[in-house]
Structure formats: C-alpha cells, structure tokens
Design brief:
Order of helices and strands: EEEEEHEE
Number of strands: 7
Structural class: mainly beta
Helix content: under 10%
Radius of gyration: 11 Å
Strand order of the largest sheet: 5-4-2-1-7
Largest sheet: 5 strands, antiparallel
Shape: globular
Number of helices: 1
Low-confidence stretches: none
Distance between the termini: 15 Å
Mean pLDDT: 91
Strand content: 25-35%
Length: 75
C-alpha cells in the first residue's frame, strides 16, 4: 500500500523508517510518550501492514521511543 498522510504517520525507530496507521491509533498525534502503537515496516517504498498477532506484539512500541517524521516522500 502506498503512503497517505491522512492515514499514516511516518516515524523513526532506531533510525529505521516505519508507519503508524492512524485509523488503528487515532489518538497517536495527541497522545503522550507512553502511548503504545504497532509499527509497520516500509519495503521498497510500500507499507507492509502487520496482521500476525505474534509479529504485532514484537512491533509494539511506545510513542516516546519514536521520532515523528514529516509527511514528505518515503525514504
């Protein structure tokens, strides 16, 4: 799936670029540092939505561990 700034928020986690789905976590932008979210990786400019519960648990982090990125292009 392609990046859409109305549906996705790009974040850096340990210098890697990921996406948070805003439909899944609608309070992400206004939430505090302890808010937990699932990160979805980007592969060849495409977003890979994680659906496996085991993988989702592994990709769950707090907002405070992420750095929000501007809505430019995926890089």
């Amino acid at each position: 799936m392609e990046f859409n700034p109305e549906l996705h928020q790009k974040v850096r986690y340990f210098n890697h670029l990921y996406v948070v789905f805003l439909d899944e976590f609608p309070d992400f932008l206004s939430a505090g540092r302890t808010y937990t979210v699932v990160l979805h990786p980007i592969w060849k400019d495409w977003i890979v939505r994680m659906t496996s519960e085991a993988v989702r648990r592994e990709m769950t982090v707090t907002k405070g561990d992420c750095i929000l990125e501007e809505h430019a292009v995926l890089q």
